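Re: Re: token formats

Sure, here are both.
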Amino acid sequence: MASSVEASESWYLALLGFAEHFRTSSPPKIRLCVHCLQAVFQFKPPQRMEARTHLQLGSVLYHHTKNSELARSHLEKAWVISQQILQFEDVKFEAASLLSELYCQQVPNLVDSAKPLLRKAIQISQQTPYWHCRLLFQLAQLHTLEKDLVSACDLLGVGAEYARVVGSEYTRALFLLSKGMLLLMERKLGEVHPLLTLCGTIVENWQGNPIQKESLRVFFLVLQVTHYLDAGQVKSVKPCLKQLQQCIQTISTLHDDEILPSNPADLFHWLPKEHMCVLVYLVTVMHSMQAGYLEKAQKYTDKALMQLEKLKMLDSSPILSTFQVILLEHIIMCRLVTGHKATALQEISQVCQLCQQSPRLFTNHAAQLHTLLGLYCISVNCMDNAEAQFTAALRVSDLTTHQELWAFIVTNLASVYIREGTRHQELYSLLERINPDHNFPVSSHCLRAAAFYIRGLLSFFQGRYNEAKRFLRETLKMSNAEDLNRLTACSLVLLGHIFYVLGNHRESNNMVVPAMQLASKIPDMSVQLWSSALLKDLNKALGNTIDAHEAAQMHQNFSQQLLQDHIAACSLPEHNLISWTDGPPPGQFQAQNGPTTSLASLL
């Protein structure tokens, strides 16, 4: 009997060894690996070997081939057989986890098959802390992808309580922080504050692996910074952002510790160190954008994109593409402000290409893509296209999780209607929805300040100058409170324009000079163009001939730069993207013969 067992083990180990050799060859020889594993069944192996081999085959086929049906068949057999075997948790729950993942990846996806499978696995895994926690995370993620955030939050709450019972404060913090992230997405700010306070206490008190502790702190601080930025509190966030940057510096000096935690429920990592670095770059870019430090934003975006390119050579994780798209979205807005429309348009095309590779990425970023195209259309004075893009963005945006984006789109669409001057009914309908004086729809300080600016802009165009001054002074008060430099510059130059029209040249000068200084610091080309035109006229009216000549020269330089960039952008084949308003982004672009839009707004 003993020799029979040894013989069976030897053939089994030999086949496994060959299979692993072929799987890890360079390049992998997957067909031969699969043949070796399939050969195991010829020997009519015992149930444990049979179940494990089905799992191995399912895993290899799922990860290395497109034969999802065969992978599914093997994983389903592994799941059924392993449930009949005592103390076979690793195979049983890995099969359940991988099978539910495969169900969600199939076309059409079988999410309704994945959910009961995960629930059954969660129910029978309570004596196996690692797998119980992992399966709870997986089902919560599945609900999140379906935008069922209530169910996801409930599961994360169950996980946090389970982790507390099994003595894993580390994993309890991971569950609670994940729940906090979803509550932020739902805008349940009343629940977020006590949860973040509890998380802060747990993170500071937990004594364990230094990298795990610092990664918890990064997660905690990222949520805090995001919370502040969502609220448009650019100045208030600075201490948290500084702590986050120090934290990531600390992590980069720590060596990965191979010592496994004593508690199996602690066997989780939030993100790899390299991913955390990119994430910190990303939130720094988001802060710099809102504050109007565009050169700083571009510097950190370049760093993050270089890091991402290196990571994507070795890692196909979908989160890297998500980071890349979000970074590009921010740098595109930078380019449009700094007068680099042609580059912005090429980067919009790059986002389109990334979204073509991932339907889920496109679903999550379609509204942002149309919004960016709307902003580009404004910059090249294609107002009809801008309206169409913003309307498309509103149509595909998810108001439950993107309320700030919705308010941003509506604010920009209102600015288009103001410039067109003929869409009064639509304009007033929009303004009612973003009334900064009454029931403003989002908590963002920045967006509320922008809503006051839009009201001031409308009053200016209507010649109601006293009313315009009231709105703009409110914008200035709010933007100065939180260092919103772009809004400050825009408000100052518009106030300067109002005072110029009213004949109060001294007061106009007091507004336009700091507007120009701030716009140069950002740098904001449109505000510089506007300010230099006003300075030219102001100095002429005040009899300052030399200053008037200098301002005229500046205005000429800015005009030429913007004009050249305008022609370059409109001549690109990607300029045809402004006509895309429905369905997936187009893959091919026809070349333009030349610019087709009016240059009058630039001169």
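Second one below.
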Amino acid sequence: MKRARSSEVFLGAGRALARRRLAPLLAAAAFAYLLFVSVKLAGFGAAGPAAAATFGRPGAAGVSEPLRRGVEKPTAPQARARPGAVVSGYGRITGEILRRQEAGAGPRRRWGQLGNFTELERTAAEAWVSGARAWEEASAFAGDVDSIASHDVGEGLPAECPSSVSVSGGEAESEAAVFLPCGLAGGSAVTVVGTARAARPEYVEALERSGAGNGTVMVAQFAVELRGLRAADGEEPPRILHLNPRLRGDWSGRPVLEMNTCFRMQWGRAQRCDGTPSRDDDQVDGFRKCEKWERRDIVESRETKTSSWFNRFIGRAKKPEMTWPFPFSEDKMFVLTIQAGVEGYHINVGGRHVASFPHRMGFALEDATGLAVTGGIDVHSVYATALPKAHPSFSLQQVLEMSERWKARPVPEEPIQLFVGILSATNHFSERMAIRKTWMQFPAIQLGNVIARFFVALSHRKEINAALKKEAEYFGDIVILPFIDRYELVVLKTVAICQYGVQNVTADYIMKCDDDTFVRLDIVLQQITTYNRTLPLYLGNLNLLHRPLRRGKWAVTYEEWPEAVYPPYANGPGYVLSIDIARDIASQHANHSLRLFKMEDVSMGMWVEDYNATAPVQYVHSWRFCQFGCVDNYFTAHYQSPRQMLCLWDKLSAGRAHCCNYR
């Protein structure tokens, strides 16, 4: 007992000594941390809540000449941002970033002023010249646009909808492109017979910078994609299914099968299969999203002789389990089949199910009008079977419901609360019709308090332009812009929306959205009324301190944008701004002083930032202006197909602001 007692005393003294030695170290670490915080975040504690979300410098409000029909010139706002004001919807630190950005010493930054926009201007000039010629051809066209639209599925495509398509014979090709004139239907199958090429060296700069060798790795991969039609020149076609087998993985040596979608050059969330099977309840049409295959990095436990004998003795049934390797191998032929199901696409290789990918919102089976095979592969043949015999999306008679019910009201003489400009592509007949039948039926539009118009540029094809002309003449809700539609020139459509909202209507606010955006107009109008009407408003899903991409396919060069970050800007699918900001934009464009950038939402942020130099702007952020897809209780929902638009409208009519995220 004495020995045990002495041991306890000795241990207790040791712990006390350790605590005494450790205490100064902890105190020094805490002091260093507090010193770091006080230096890096000095002044953040002064930021407090503010009633109005404003920031800016004192100065007179810059406005243009009064609008026609006697619109009065607005007076300079009296209110100014208080020190420490926070932008609505953001936290304390982010609000302080914006406040400091405005209150910083030195000359004010002119966003992109050093940029060289000659390439964009040259593209715009060519588009205007080509557009004038295209409009003359469309006006002189005397054919039947109803029958033409049903056949117009792309250059070089046949007028019929064949039940099968095949491309075979000859030597193996490194790439293949197969047109599916009328898309796919449930049960349609596309089969690719090919050989995966051997790995090739590829340089990865990030690996070299990390010190992992010279940055050279061996890569073996290819892609099989179901694609749709691109909406405008310069824009990549949507990837309805992107299937990317990576035989050596992501430079890791472990094979991976990746699936994804891409719409309007925005990739979705990837689904990756690495040999680990999906859960039993994670299925598509009864198939697992990812099947199991052998993995060299996992050693599975084997049954011992004793456990095997015991299981046999007690009569326990043993289910035989088959193991398969990764379905693709270098320099070996394969047969890949993609079959369209009710809930998604099913991928089979060599007759065995490998993976299933659920349908993503915004895409329908009939949208898959092409197959592209690219990368490290030799294509021997491609077969598409059980194809649909008709494509409803390309028939004006089936898409456009020529009814008096859907015609637009004329522009009123009296002032309105909101003007909505909707950016739309030339051949998006079904998207425009879906909007007419859904959120353009809100009482605010029907009663004339809100006016909505589509802003559409021209196509290279005179038949499509003639069909657009007929649609515009009947419904009266389309503003045709006489230039050829290109992705880089979307910013010109935004300028046109501001000009129309200033010159043709008398509105308090202007909203810009896309033709795949569903807008809850009642909620948007309610949101507008909650903010200070004496101050300019910029409302949307705001981005702060976003940096341009300098590498990759969609890189922005330093000549296009020399600054390190973009100005604060709202995402393009939907945002609201005050009429005085739109008036300033239209005025600068009229006197050729408006600076343009190929990304229209960044351009709007740049213009609002310029206006904010003289009149403080309310920057109001809300994540319910959804950038990607839809969330419950949304203000706007993006990437919505015509079918989803109708579904959203039905749910709203039933009093539920829920999404229609079809799998």
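The CA atoms of residues 250 and 442 lie 49 Å apart. The chain has a mean pLDDT of 76.
- S.
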